[in-house]
Amino acid sequence: MQTLQEKASEWSGVSQSDAFAIDNDDTSLYEKLGLQTFINLSTNFYTRVYDDEEEWFRSIFANSKKEDAIQNQYEFFTQRMGGPPLFSQRRGHPALIGRHRPFPVTHQAAERWLYHMQEALDTTKDIDSDSKTKMMNFFRHTAFFLVAGDELKNPKQGIPCKHAA
User: Fold this and answer.
1) How many CB atoms lie within 10 A of CB 114?
2) Is the distance from CB of 112 to CB of 52 less than 8 angstroms?
3) What are the respective helix, strand and coil percentages of the chain, to the nearest 5?
4) C-alpha to C-alpha distance for 148 and 97, rounded to whole angstroms
5) Domain range list for the chain
6) Structure confidence at residue 165 as a pLDDT band (50, 70, 90)
7) Which SUPFAM superfamilies match (predicted)?
8) 47 and 137 Cβ atoms separated by less than 8 Å
């Protein structure tokens, strides 16, 4: 039986080693990019999400304040990419699967989320191409890790995306 990490790697097309390459350098992405870059990335991302043309996708975020979503994301990214544990200090352990359990984290939603994240990465100043690649690999793997976790709560859901078997 596949682990969640193995499923995430299969569906995302990103190996675990590539997904966690953000941990492999002597200088962390946080040290390289700084807090403001993560704030800018998260602001850019959630501006796109909350303005998404697809109502089904916007509805996933309807019960969250945009400012709270931005803060949660940049604090998590800061912590996960080598910075201070801002998210854990304020909210406790990230527990991504548990925190995302109330939401429909489908393949389609993951693909849409990744579309907006790629756009945000591409338009956020001060992120070099190597950092973008490492971050996007991490984001793809993590998005599909959450899809695999979502399937644990609803194993009969369909998988309507290009990664479906």
Assistant:
1) 17
2) yes
3) 65, 0, 35
4) 9
5) 4-16+30-153
6) very low
7) Globin-like
8) no
Q: 87-134, pLDDT tens digit by residue? A: 877 776 766 666 667 777 788 999 999 999 999 999 999 999 999 999
Q: Please give the backbone phi and psi of residue 105, each rounded to the nearest 5 degrees, phi first.
A: -95, 75
Separation in Å, CA 36 to CA 77, 83, 88: 12, 12, 19
Q: Which residue has the higher pLDDT, 87 or 150?
A: 87
| Residue 144 in tokens | 């599909």
DSSP 66-85: HHHHHHHHHHHHHHHTTS--
Token digits for 49?
A: 């999400």
Q: What percent of the chain has pLDDT over 90?
A: 52
Under CATH, to which class is 4-16+30-153 assigned? mainly alpha
DSSP result, 106-133: -HHHHHHHHHHHHHHHHHSTT--HHHHH
Give the Cα-Cα-Cα angle 134, 124, 42 (nearest 5 degrees). Answer: 80
Contacts of 145 (CB under 8 A, 6+ apart): 4, 5, 7, 8, 96, 97
C-alpha to C-alpha distance for 86 and 1, rounded to whole angstroms: 35
